[in-house]
């Protein structure tokens, strides 16, 4: 082995020894009901910080194992058990070392093992990048010197541009992934139909991206199935290369998403449902309340004061969604469904869909004549008059392309209603 490789893996071994020493002196921080929960309770300031609570180290990965090597970043602490992992691949003709390496220590410091992949050829297409992402995860969990630090059941993929397209293709190939994140995901001639994915998916794109345009990303987003949690954040003023340099807006959205779906840590839901800080975000859509598969399912006995609860098992079979029968040429329609219910309360969700033309704002009215009341709304602004609840769009989800859709959710008291919501657009 070259001298540089020996030095690199000696560093890994030393880090393991240091981590073992810490394990003898540092009490576990994981909550008893979630063995994957890591670190102190998060705040807006902490998720926006450029470093999280964990010390990190990194090592070089030699070429082989199905990809052209790269870099691995990971927390030095071994007292908390294994960590979730994310493999990241760059875009067409790019090197991870040049464009995404800034993300490695940033993400690792929040409690993830990060594998940055260099591709076999810089001109590899999306399919090849998908193959190399999955090969990288297999290497990470089966034969890498840090395999004992990685939970093989908590894996994810991420990539930029053609690497983002490869990320989405990897999710289609491996449904066991916990999440996939596409950064301005696109590939020439690839429509990226995600209608069969089973993997929670986040798309992050740039408002001023002329390569992977907002309408292109909207097309991908529209194919994501309602049965799978997903979100789309469009960053104001960002272009196609904004993801290749340190991007605090991207990271304060990305970190909570990874925490929710890799760590089942619903303490982070408050930052995305609703979006707690919309500074620098021109559009945001999500399937709140963003419950990770296998995550908490029982709702609280009383609604929380600031964040929507995890989806609760309904006490009875929820009624089918009800949709406004659209008059000819209707600007928009609204569909209601009961997400979950418990004694004295329920969680509802409304999907707003534009008609045959784009709209720049919407208003939904629900008749709650059964005595229900709404206590909290996310992704919308609530007003009430008698038994009518009116919800209007917020700044980031009022503009919808033709046939485009968005959702808002709410907590209510009483028996779940069976409303027929109406939708109008200015």
UniProtKB/TrEMBL annotation:
<protein>
    <submittedName>
        <fullName>Lipase</fullName>
    </submittedName>
</protein>
<feature type="domain" description="CBM2">
    <location>
        <begin position="325"/>
        <end position="426"/>
    </location>
</feature>
<dbReference type="GO" id="GO:0005975">
    <property type="term" value="P:carbohydrate metabolic process"/>
</dbReference>
<keyword id="KW-0732">Signal</keyword>
<feature type="compositionally biased region" description="Pro residues">
    <location>
        <begin position="290"/>
        <end position="328"/>
    </location>
</feature>
<dbReference type="GO" id="GO:0052689">
    <property type="term" value="F:carboxylic ester hydrolase activity"/>
</dbReference>
<dbReference type="InterPro" id="IPR008965">
    <property type="entry name" value="CBM2/CBM3_carb-bd_dom_sf"/>
</dbReference>
<dbReference type="InterPro" id="IPR029058">
    <property type="entry name" value="AB_hydrolase_fold"/>
</dbReference>
<dbReference type="InterPro" id="IPR001919">
    <property type="entry name" value="CBD2"/>
</dbReference>
<dbReference type="InterPro" id="IPR041127">
    <property type="entry name" value="PET_hydrolase/cutinase-like"/>
</dbReference>
<dbReference type="InterPro" id="IPR012291">
    <property type="entry name" value="CBM2_carb-bd_dom_sf"/>
</dbReference>
<dbReference type="GO" id="GO:0004553">
    <property type="term" value="F:hydrolase activity, hydrolyzing O-glycosyl compounds"/>
</dbReference>
<dbReference type="Pfam" id="PF00553">
    <property type="entry name" value="CBM_2"/>
</dbReference>
<dbReference type="InterPro" id="IPR050261">
    <property type="entry name" value="FrsA_esterase"/>
</dbReference>
<comment type="similarity">
    <text>Belongs to the AB hydrolase superfamily.</text>
</comment>
<dbReference type="GO" id="GO:0030247">
    <property type="term" value="F:polysaccharide binding"/>
</dbReference>
<feature type="signal peptide">
    <location>
        <begin position="1"/>
        <end position="31"/>
    </location>
</feature>
<dbReference type="Pfam" id="PF12740">
    <property type="entry name" value="PETase"/>
</dbReference>
<feature type="region of interest" description="Disordered">
    <location>
        <begin position="287"/>
        <end position="329"/>
    </location>
</feature>
<keyword id="KW-0378">Hydrolase</keyword>
